Amino acid sequence: MEFAAFADRAADIEAEPADLETVSLVCDLFRDAGDDLPIVARFVQGRVFPAWDERKLDVGPNTVYAAIARAAGQNVTADDVEARLADVGEIGAVAASYDLGGQQGLAAFGAGGGEDLTVASLYDDFERLAATEGDGSQDTKLDLLFGLFNRSSPDEARYLARLVLSEMRIGVGEGAVRDAIAEAFDVPVSAVERAVQVTNDYGLVAETAREEGEDGLAEHTLTVGRPVQAMLAQAGTAADVLDSWAEAAVETKFDGARVQVHWDGETVSVFSRNMEDVTDALPEVVEFVESACDAPAILDGEVVAIDDSGDPLPFQQVLRRFRRKHDVAKAREDVTVELRAFDCLHADGEDLLDAPLRDRHDRLGTVLDANVADLTLTADAETVASVEEAALEAGHEGIMLKDPDSTYSPGKRGQQWLKRKPDVETLDCVVTGAEWGEGRRAELLGTFELSVRDADAGAFETIGKVATGITDEELAELTDLLEPHVQSQVGQTVTLSPAVVFEVGYEEIQASPTYSSGYALRFPRFVTVRDDKEPGTADSLERVERLAEEQ
Asked: Which residues are catalytic?
């Protein structure tokens, strides 16, 4: 498929306001994609590689501005592109506004000369971008992007810029892609959803649905070494569950970082909540699983930091280990971590996603001989309170309440798992803007704009700003973290690409016309950076609406 044809179809999808018609347009696109179907199924979501694939383009906004400027001509600078972005507000529209493609000589360097762009050739170049690292890598990436923009029409440039920055903005989320695959290739939605859960690859699932139908989708299983999305919890109370379930499974809620551990009998792989490979940063977890795991398995759990007495340390200490890429041995001396496993998705060749929680926990105990979280089954509120009190006294965060008969649904947040914490409610918000400080803080970002996901629109909607709860030292760290994601600046205010997630405490959620979400956080307070989360897993507008109703 020519990339120009893809861009035309993307423009039609973007212009369609109705959800059902959007699915129909995506369905038609999939039917016409030919051999490029797996790539198209990801591109339409703004994703280049499968969700389980840890490869990243690693291209920041400034590199994109520079590539657009070079392709636009000698009289255009990256600052000009950034200034236009401040006026237009969206990088795709900025790229489409320039008359690209006029540069000669080295113009096509690294991108295949003057040939038309195709979906397949663009994917090949994206693979080259992802593989480029080391000294001089940013210059090489700039050359590659320059060549791509120089060969692009305005519509191609629009969606090329968005793809590079993972900001497709055409209103196509995972649900629309799932439904479009089902409609395009006449397979049940449930079969598509199930296949996506175990493969984490919409491209593979789309191709399987087309070539092999429902039977082929059913053949997909979990693969040890390939991470899947974690099942998620929402806030709840003991009264909520004891009124609904015959009994509740109660376990400790650890103040750690969620991990998924894969052991194939020879190699241990550890993945973070957003499916990044963090194996090298956690050697003691690897060593523990090698010694304690009796069969190939996929385990769900938390990595917790502990002191010399084995007591838990705050979550921030765990993040010090997750952030470490160098000198891991020294970091290990400073902060000790341990795995606390609480679920088993696969054991000794058998997938367990459809097994009830109580059975999965039993299997967990058979494949792992230590550090398995206790599970208390009860229908008594006093027993729940007793388990919670013991967890808090031990220094943990609270408790989890789970339906003992619940299956494991990767990526789903439902009523089967509830988290109960005694402290203030928090939201995981995406940082989409900031303001430079004044006086001694003039070189630091000091006020941060917060947004939540609008899953239906595939966008982020503002919900407030936070400036309290942050030390000067933390401000310096946050400035270093966020500066690479600055898209534009007007005065002291900067716009940031959605890349960093803050956990923010608040007193109340109020209806407000000030922010695009329609809500505002009352007395927001910075808690921590959620390094273990990507913007796509931050809290949603739907959850904000539900929390506001429950107040």
From this structure: 253
